[in-house]
Design brief:
alpha/beta; Rossmann fold; Heat Shock Protein 90; five-stranded mixed sheet; 12 strands; elongated
C-alpha cells in the first residue's frame, strides 16, 4: 500500500511539478492550495506526511502547522516545510512549532524524495514502537494481575501458618525457619511485582495530580510501611521537625523515600543510623531532600552505576531485585527533578532528590 502525501502550496505550477514527480515515485498525492483547506484534508484523509509551503495568503504555513500540531487527530503527522526563506530565525520557528524538516526552494527532486522517505520511515518506527509499548504494558499488567492473585493466597496462608506455629509451638526450629523463609520469599515476590508495575507506570505519559505535600506526613507513612525492617535492624532514624513545602505527586514521593530509607536500613551501619533533611536551593528554585546513612560508603565507580536497573548497592550484603534506585530516577525525572548521591568510603552515603519549590 502506497504512502499518502499532502502537498500544500498556493502556486499551481509548483504543485503540478511536485505532484507528477511524487506520483511517479509511487506515492498517493493529495493537494491543498491554502492552510485552511490543508487542515481540513489532513483531518479526514490522515496523510502519512505533509509538505507545507510557508508563504501563503490568509493563513501562512506557520499558522497551519501550529493548528495541525495542536489537534489530536493530526499532531503526529510529520510536516516538512517548503520555503524560499533562508533565514535561520524562520527555520527555528518552524521547528519550535513541531516541523520535522525544511526543504529550500527551488526544490531539488532527489533531495525531496530522500527527506520524505527518511521521515516516513521514522514515523512508521514511532508508530510501531507505540503499538509495542501498549502491548507490553497490557501484557505486564495482565501477568502481574495473574501472579498477584495466587501470590496473595500464598502470602496469607504463609503468614497465618507462621503465626499459628509460633503461638502453638507446632514445629521444631528447623521447620519453623523454613516456613519463615517461605513467608519472606512470598513477600519479596510481591515487592518485585509492585516494583515492576511502578517502573512501568513511570514511563507512561499520564496525568499526575500534583498537590502541596506535607513531607512529615509522607515520612510517617513510609515509617509505617517499613516498621518491621526498622525494628529488626534496631535502626535510629532522625527526622527534622519541619520540611519546606513542594507541590508534587504524593504516592511517588512516598516511593522515593521508601526506597532511600530501605537502602539505608539494608546497607547502613550496625545498627543503621539514618538522618533525613532538606535544603532550599535558591539558585534554581528547587528543594533538595536527602537521606544520610552511616554505611561503609561507595566508590566513584559504584556511584556511577547506582541508578542503572538491576544494579545493587553491595552485591555481598543484601539480597534484592535491584530496581529501587532506577525507579527513583524515573519517578524524580517525571516530577521535574534530579537524583544523586554524595558518598565517600568510610563516611556513609547521602542520597538526594530535588523537586520544584512550592
Amino acid at each position: 500500500m502506497s504512502d499518502t502525501l499532502l502537498i500544500v502550496d498556493d502556486i499551481p505550477a509548483n504543485i503540478s511539478v511536485l505532484t507528477n514527480f511524487l506520483k511517479n515515485a509511487g506515492f498517493k498525492v493529495l493537494v491543498a492550495q491554502n492552510g485552511k483547506r490543508a487542515i481540513q484534508k489532513a483531518e479526514y484523509a490522515a496523510p502519512d506526511l505533509i509538505l507545507l509551503d510557508v508563504m501563503m495568503p490568509e493563513m501562512d504555513g506557520f499558522e497551519a502547522c501550529r493548528i495541525l500540531k495542536s489537534q489530536d487527530s493530526t499532531k503526529k503527522i510529520p510536516i516538512i516545510f517548503m520555503t524560499a526563506l533562508a533565514d535561520t530565525v524562520d527555520k527555528v520557528k518552524g521547528f519550535e512549532l513541531g516541523a520535522a524538516d525544511y526543504i529550500t526552494k527551488p526544490i531539488q527532486q532527489e533531495e525531496v524524495l530522500a527527506r520524505i522517505n527518511a521521515h516516513l520511515n521514522l514515523y512508521k518506527l514511532q508508530q510501531n514502537l507505540q503499538v509495542c509499548n501498549l502491548q507490553l504494558d497490557a501484557f505486564s499488567r495482565t501477568v502481574a494481575h495473574d501472579l498477584k492473585n495466587p501470590l496473595n493466597t500464598v502470602i496469607g496462608y504463609a503468614d497465618e501458618l507462621v503465626e499459628i506455629c509460633s503461638e502453638e509451638n507446632l514445629l521444631n526450629a528447623d521447620l519453623r525457619s523454613q516456613l519463615d523463609l517461605v513467608a519472606k520469599a512470598s513477600h519479596k515476590m510481591e515487592d518485585i511485582i509492585n516494583s515492576l508495575l511502578l517502573f512501568a507506570r513511570t514511563t507512561k505519559d499520564e496525568f499526575l495530580d500534583k498537590q502541596p505535600l506535607d513531607m512529615s506526613e509522607i515520612i510517617q507513612q513510609v515509617q509505617e510501611r517499613l516498621v518491621y525492617a526498622i525494628e529488626d535492624s534496631k535502626a535510629e532514624i532522625i527526622i527534622p521537625d519541619n520540611f519546606p513545602t513542594v507541590i508534587s505527586y504524593a504516592p511517588w514521593v512516598e516511593e522515593i523515600l521508601a526506597n532511600y530509607i530501605s537502602n539505608g536500613l539494608k546497607y547502613g551501619g550496625s545498627p543503621p543510623k539514618i538522618e533525613l533533611g532538606a535544603d532550599i536551593l535558591e539558585d534554581d528554585n528547587m528543594i533538595c531532600f536527602w537521606v544520610q546513612d552511616n554505611g561503609q560508603g561507595l566508590s566513584e565507580e559504584a556511584q556511577a552505576k547506582l541508578f542503572t536497573p538491576f544494579t545493587r548497592l553491595h552485591q555481598e550484603r543484601a539480597e534484592g531485585h535491584g530496581l529501587g534506585l532506577s525507579i527513583v530516577q524515573q519517578i524524580v525525572e517525571r516530577l521535574d527533578g534530579k537524583v544523586g548521591i554524595n558518598s565517600k568510603i568510610g563516611q556513609g552515603s547521602r542520597f538526594y532528590f530535588t523537586l520544584p519549590k512550592s
